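A common beginner's mistake is to predict each chain separately and then try to dock the pieces by hand. The better habit, illustrated here, is to supply every component at once so that their relative placement is modeled jointly.
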Amino acid sequence: MAVHVGGRGPGHLARVIGGWTPAALGSSLLGWWDAERTDKLTLSGSAVTTWTDVVGSYAATQGVTAAKPRWDANAFGGVLNKCTNYNNSPQALVTPTTAANFNAAISGVTASGDAATLFGVVDDSIALAAAGINTGNGRVYVIDNTAGAATSQIRIAGNPGNTNAHCYIAWGRASAGTGDVSRTSTGVSAASISGTSYARAVAANLTPGSTADEMRVRAAPGAVVYFTLNGLYEGSTAPTQDVVVNGSAAYGFGRPGLIFDGSDDELTLASVPFPTGASACEIWALVDQQALVADTSTRLAASYGGTGTANRRRIGRAVSGGANRGQIGAGDGASEVTATNGSVDFSGRHVARGIFRATEIQADMDGISAAAQAVVPATTSDRTRIGANSSPTAGGFWHGMMSTVIVTGALSTDQASQLTAYLKARGGIA
Amino acid sequence: MSTKFVKFPPEKGAEAVAYEAECSAQLRLLTGEPTDIWAIVRLDRNNNHTVPLYGPPWVWNVAEVEEPASCLALRGDAVVVDFPEWPVVED
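With all components supplied together, the output reads:
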């Protein structure tokens, strides 16, 4: 069932953040899709069926489930725990038993190792409370390797997805012997679990051996190791707080955002309520660009106008000179002219601004200008897309997140400065 | 929504359509929405019929959806890939 995720009534043009909002642009504000306006989102589960702008109620829609972006209240600027087990509350108590029995009883983790090792889910709420940890039901995983002669482990589902630096974390204790949090079954770059009180074991800044690596918690021969709140996080530095995961990778500590998978996600508005021909406009987006440089596809945050490059306007990302760059484009009726900002590494969170004037276009990123490129736009009026191009069959799919997409008329220097400051503050961009 | 993709070879178009239909049927059971559509079968740059995988890592609400046996059976020996290879079309 499709449901609205929030209850704001109509008539509220802006969510007020720090006083100034894009609503202050007045008649220059032509379109504003805002992931923080939950009253403007229609979800099916967490899948976005409709994202409606706050200016003209322009509804960008997606009717095909697999192509719907996902909305998450903590995604933008948040921390993603890539594990997919129930890290804070294993689903059921499992009296310590053989690996085979344990694996049959519990999903999301896989036990292996010495045949004499016992694996289970037990109530350890007293020890958790002693360490100031409240996980709700107090259940934790245990590896009882008292009788084992070899190291045993629990492997936790959830892959890094790339080979960037990652951190492997769990809260653990050992009532006997020692254990560790490890990237591999052989304990490469492990972080020790020892002592009878829970402590956070962090194996930080490790490079996954493959995009499908899974983290492990291990117990040495003779050890009894308890653990909970496991996490696999991208980045060289461990997050200071743990993100609770219940059956799927989960974000924490961020702001609302739409997540586009880079494969087929997009939202389409079957009209173009924005300037056409050579009339001036600007397209702004607060994005988290996650495509890697190795992916040389051009990926679009937004596009509107005609069905081809010669007659539309677009803003997005391209790889240029071996780096991610913010890039915009406009067709002159015969071909497309692009303007690329070569000053800003367009990886991660950025404020993207495409300026479309009567005779030139310019790509500003995070308030940093780039040279204008001469073109007389000949924009037509077939469709608008968020997260892809406006071709009959969508392509150039955005890979990453969006917090907001804004279309304006030509802005004054002051207006642009205010909008840049607003979006940078909202996106946590320095 | 992030998921993997199933590539049916060029001569297996009917199988791809049947697989998508079953995915849509399973989706409707999940959501309770009788008109929900799982995906559009698209040709990739090598003319493989490409359909998003109805199964992990696709997430419904907060949990990954297990692949129904009926979907698994219908995808047969089609290749599962992390990313589709859509045609490069710049109009």
